[in-house]
Amino acid sequence: MNQRSKILIVDDKEQNLITLEAILGDFEVDFIKALSGNEALALSLENDFALAIIDIQMPDMDGYETVKLMRQVKRTRNLPIIYVSAIYKEEFHVVKGIEAGAVDFIVKPILPEILKGKVKVFLELYRHRVHLEDLVKQRTEELERANLQFQREKEKAEAATTSKSLFLANMSHEIRTPLNGIIGMTNHLKKTTLNEEQTDIVDIISTSGDYLLAIINDILDFSKIESGQIELEEKEMDILKLIDELVKTFKPRLESKQVELTHHLSINVPRFVIGDQVRVRQIFINIIGNAIKFTAKGSIKIEGRVLSEEGDTIKLKFHVIDTGIGIPTERTDHIFKLFSQGETSTTRKYGGTGLGLAISKNLCELMNGSIGVKSQPGVGSDFFFSIPFRIARLQTPALEPANRTLSKINDLDIKELRILLAEDNLINQKVASISLKKLGCKYDIAIDGIQAVAMYKKNDYDAILMDIQMPEMDGIEATKVIRQLETAHNELHPITIIAMTANAMIEDQDRYRRAGMDGFIPKPFKPDKLAEVLSNVKKR
Questions:
Q1: pLDDT at 151
Q2: Which residues contact 200 (CB under 8 A, 6 or more apart)?
């Protein structure tokens, strides 16, 4: 990277711009200054910035409106933005700033060391991203022009609605799509021959990508909860299967640690209850993920028992007990609040947004439950939550003994499968193709829904990996057409259709099921997840 990185600093007072430039003078970057929101927007169209630092209170157009407009432009859609303000200091303004598109919020007067520390991190992330782009050589001028035209058309559609749920869905998709290329290609790059320096670089890129994905998921979940857009489902759920799947999901993350993950449910816990499995699973994921993060050795136990029972309502209490670093007693009341962790040093060492437990608390309360923690520094933590469920009418025989083994993945040889990949994005095509090749699958590629339907008619495929947002005909419409064809021909063995998309919101998954899809793989995806899903596809 030969050119110096650029930082955009925006403030209506010239003296404040001079002060910011002086504080950050040790960094080898070029400072581009703007005295208004309009000037900042104009400059953002002419330059590629590593970071923007924007004042909130400005005449004509304030910082909130400026950032919202910047987020509608492809060039600045993913630009890290830090707000600074001397007047707006309350939690409400911080949340409003994050929702507008900022990644951080600093109150004036600015502490130089804090600002320099944050800027250093974002500059390093920017340089890693640029290095990866150079490494994979996927950004050609032709693709840039095509994506720019696509983004312009998409921005017109986004401007036509004020629905926050649609805005969140679009934001999720647009960030996840390039992340799929970054994380996917990094995973494949790890499996090639690399020297020690290259391995370190790839590991940093991979860790940064996973961390960014976790931040995106947390922010989207929190925004939906805060806006009251969460709708709880009342469906039958299998407690035993849920716990088994959680253990199976997290065990790969423990391979590099001396940590054992086990689970035990009391014998009187009913296997089937009525509740929102997706939200319960999300609470478990947040808590278990934290336990793994903060536990270097020892054990993590998942336990469940009956707290109370009245009529057809049963209250279950679950514990996640770890032997990790623990939490000081004076901090246990704060960790369920926004952007909070045990200590500020914890954030620096272990990372995280501080949103996961706040999300879990809100979800518990939405389901008329509660959450808490008991902890001792150096010994470990016991996170617990209780939720009322309705008991399902039909129950299987008594639960198997505790610490039961996980059910094995279908042992079908996936090398026998013939797959149709319906995907219009060239980078995503490449990521999925490499994974399918390594799994030994035979596959063809369709670039839109119309071509996917045509290829389905001419060939015998076992499964279709279907992107959702495609030109000409999208994935949902293509699925409906294929299901109609199967009905018309009395097809006894319908083809398996799996959504593989960056539209990863819960309501999106419901749409895919209603359209006739059988499964879902969110982008970015890991090769192991693709293998797991395909292992359950039946040969036609």
A1: 83
A2: none
Answer yes or no: are the C-beta atoms of 262 and 329 closer than 8 Å. no
Asked whether the bond before 401 is cis by omega within 30 degrees of 0, the reply is no
| pLDDT > 70? residue 452 | yes
Backbone angles phi, psi at 245, to 5 degrees: -65, -35
Strand order of the sheet with strand 463-466?
442-446, 418-422, 463-466, 496-501, 519-522
Asked whether 257 and 223 are in contact (CB, 8 A), the reply is no
Instruction: Characterise 256 by phi-psi region: left (phi > 0), alpha (psi -120 to 50), beta (else).
Output: alpha
- What is the rounded distance in angstroms from the CA atom of residue 100 to the CA atom of residue 94? 10
- Measure the CA–CA gap between 509 and 519, rounded to whole angstroms: 9
Q: CA-CA distance, 500 to 173, in Å (whole number)?
A: 12
Residue with tokens 């192991």: 528
As to burial, measured by CB atoms within 10 angstroms (0-12 exposed, 13-18 middle, 19+ buried), residue 330 is exposed
Q: Please give the helix or strand (H or E) that residue 419 lies within, else none.
A: strand 418-422
> Tens digit of pLDDT for each residue in 30-82?
999 999 999 999 999 999 999 999 999 898 899 999 999 999 998 899 899 99
Instruction: Reply yes or no on whether the pLDDT at 353 is more than 60.
Output: no
| Predicted model pTM | 0.44
Which of 66, 63, 69 minimizes the C-alpha distance to 87? 63
Find tokens 């050609």 and name the residue.
140
Q: What is the mean pLDDT of residues 353-367?
A: 83
Torsion of CA 524, 527, 529, 535, to 10 degrees: 140
Return the sign of the alpha-carbon dihedral for residues 404, 385, 245, 517: positive
